[in-house]
Amino acid sequence: MAKRDPEIITDKDAMRKWSRSMRAQGKSIGLVPTMGYLHQGHISLVKEAQKHSDLIVVSIYANPGQFAPSEDLATYPSDFQGDIEKLRSLSGGVYVVFHPQNLYDYGTNGDESGKNGSSNSCSSRDDKETRGEGSAVSCIEERQSGHETWVRVERLEKGMCGKRRPIFFRGVATVVTKLFNIVEPDIAIFGKKDYQQ
């Protein structure tokens, strides 16, 4: 199989239009969702997706919805050009890299300046001061983006990692739902890195 340069799509509507166009041509679409800074594990997921679908979309989006204000989203590693080079070097390749700037602020259609999602800074203030005891808040809520709808996985939120990171699973489930609704894949491939995820 030939190597190819992936098309980079940042706009949600353009991504959905591409997917629907490919599906109308009878193609199946595989999605590999990532937060970027790709490594061999991600590459193995892409290779697995290639076995099950005609076209591969890799999303690269550092999701602020899974970071609490006390966690430093701004220091999450990023090497977009390095990621593209790794994907370009794959036999069979990746057709699209979906790299939205923001999936949470409304009216921007995903094209807001900033690294992987508007401002990547999140206050380091004590959570209890900013949200009150007993409720969870993410970087998204602290920024007052207007985003109010979340996907909850209530039992997973209560055990193991969920005890220490109460908003994490809600953020992951929400962004995956958003990606599914935008990309509209036939299959999605996830790693086994974290048992609870």
Summarize the structure in words.
With 197 residues, this protein is of the alpha/beta class. The protein has helices at 12-24, 40-52, 80-88, 127-131, 139-142, 154-158, 161-164, 168-183, and strands at 7-9, 29-34, 55-60, 96-98, 187-188. The chain has a single domain (7-188), classed as Rossmann fold, CATH 3.40.50. A five-stranded parallel β-sheet has the order 1-4-3-2-5, with helices on both faces. Helix 2 (40-52) links the parallel strand 2 and strand 3 (55-60). The longest helix has 16 residues, at 168-183. Residues 108-119 and 124-134 have low confidence and may be disordered.
Total number of helices: 8
Strand content bin: 5-15%
Name the CATH architecture.
3-Layer(aba) Sandwich
What characteristic shape results from the CA principal axes? globular
Structural class: alpha/beta
The overall average pLDDT, rounded, is: 83
How do the SSEs run, as a string of H and E?
EHEHEHEHHHHHE
Give the CA-CA distance, first to last residue: 33 Å
Percent of residues in helical segments? 25-40%
Radius of gyration: 17 Å
Q: From the 3D structure, determine the CATH topology.
A: Rossmann fold
**pLDDT < 50 runs, ≥5 residues:** 108-119, 124-134
Strand order of the largest sheet: 1-4-3-2-5
Number of spatially distinct domains: 1
Biggest β-sheet description: 5 strands, parallel
CATH superfamily: HUPs
- Let me know the number of strands: 5
CATH class group: Alpha Beta
